[in-house]
Specification:
379 residues, alpha+beta, Phosphatase 2c, domain 1, 2 domains, 5-stranded antiparallel beta sheet, Bact_Sigma-Reg
């Protein structure tokens, strides 16, 4: 029921957004006619002394914002016709100021048609770019399996800091291999297309190495080799790699990334810091030792949240960081994806504006005997 409710909520919010956008477009398309009607009514009532005829040029000017070529031209013709009618009504049709007004309306109409054509061309180009970006998203951040083994649920969330974009410098992947289910969550230094390109290199190398290498340290070595060939200067990638094998623990290798947050089935919350600090990927030349694997308990009822620094470094208007541990109770829902969506929504409410950095989250939940703190308290 919780999953169904969250799905319906998301669909309802999308519907409201589309309705709001549609109403805005309809309003902008009607605005030129409203402006011209108001000008005409006032001029009819006040007579030739009002001097409002030049304001008829606002009609085609406003039309260029949201209307197509035909509609913009029609608005210009209507404005010109109204100028003639009002000039005849006020007996000022061929006076110099009326002639100047008609020339101005014609000029504004031509400019508005040209502006509308340019706007439509850019909108078509933007639509093409978005379709390419969506295709890139499906390749780069492809959907992960919702199960990572018997009784283990998986949920992901990604919020790009770039306006209208769905991908950025953060990355995640879940791969089933002969060695167990292997996971990576990482953050590329920098933003923009260069960060996306680096993320693609890391994900491509991980998807191949996860099947071939017997240990996570071997996977890390392969990622380092791939980045050494691709990166330049002082670029780097922070990442945490995990392996879910047999037993009740997750093996983790942390390469300079924020530690996973563990939510115990008993209600305890703690961050699984690595035993030793390790440098990010791409900085192997500075390393004196390789990052060492360590284990996180993963008993029935436990959850592990992997995330990027865009989550914990998100600030509200007062400059306060997002209190991830304090909001961990939002992950208590029955459905892992619905719970992670609730945490993401809370993060966006905390910031109150577009994020300053990409934010990726990946949640693992041992479904058996999942925490039911709210249920037990109610009983």
């Amino acid at each position: 029921m919780t999953s169904l409710g969250s799905t319906r909520t998301r669909a309802f919010l999308r519907l409201l957004t589309s309705i709001g956008t549609s109403r805005t477009q309809d309003t902008l398309k009607l605005l030129p006619f409203v402006v011209m009607a108001v000008v005409a009514l006032i001029d009819f009532g006040s007579g030739p002394t009002s001097g409002l005829l030049p304001l008829l040029a606002l009609g085609p000017a406003f039309a260029s914002v949201a209307c197509g070529l035909t509609r913009t031209t029609v608005v210009g013709v209507v404005a010109f016709a109204l100028c003639i009618v009002l000039g005849l009504y006020n007996d000022i049709l061929w006076m110099p100021r009326t002639n100047i007004t008609m020339v101005a309306i014609l000029g504004v109409t031509v400019a508005s048609v040209l502006a509308s054509a340019g706007r439509l061309r850019h909108e078509n180009q933007l639509a093409d770019v978005r379709s390419v970006a969506e295709a890139a998203q499906r390749v780069l951040l492809r959907p992960v399996p919702r199960r990572a083994g018997p009784g283990i649920g998986v949920a992901v969330s990604y919020t790009s800091a770039t306006a209208e974009a769905r991908i950025g410098g953060d990355l995640y992947e879940v791969v089933s291999t002969p060695h167990g289910v292997r996971i990576i969550v990482g953050d590329v230094q920098g933003k923009g297309l260069e960060a996306v390109e680096t993320a693609a290199v890391v994900l491509g190398a991980f998807r191949e190495a996860a099947h071939d290498e017997g240990t996570l340290q071997g996977v890390v070595a392969r990622l380092e080799n791939a980045l050494t060939r691709e990166l330049s200067g002082e670029q780097f990638v922070t990442a945490v790699l995990a392996e879910i094998g047999a037993g009740s623990a997750i093996t983790v290798v942390n390469c300079g990334h924020p530690p996973p947050m563990v939510l115990g089935g008993d209600g305890g919350i703690w961050f699984a810091d690595p035993p030793d600090e390790a440098l990010p990927l791409g900085m192997s030349s500075l390393e004196t030792s390789r990052p060492q694997p360590y284990r996180i308990p993963f008993e029935p009822g436990d959850q592990v949240l992997f995330y990027t620094d865009g989550v914990i470094e998100a600030r509200d208007g007062a400059g306060e960081f997002y209190p991830l541990a304090e909001r961990a109770h939002l992950l208590d829902g029955a459905d892992p994806q619905g719970s992670l969506d609730a945490l993401r929504a809370d993060l966006l409410r905390h910031v109150g504006r577009p994020l300053g950095d990409d934010a990726a989250m990946l949640l693992l939940r041992h479904r058996a005997a999942h925490r039911t703190s709210s249920t037990s308290s109610a009983a």
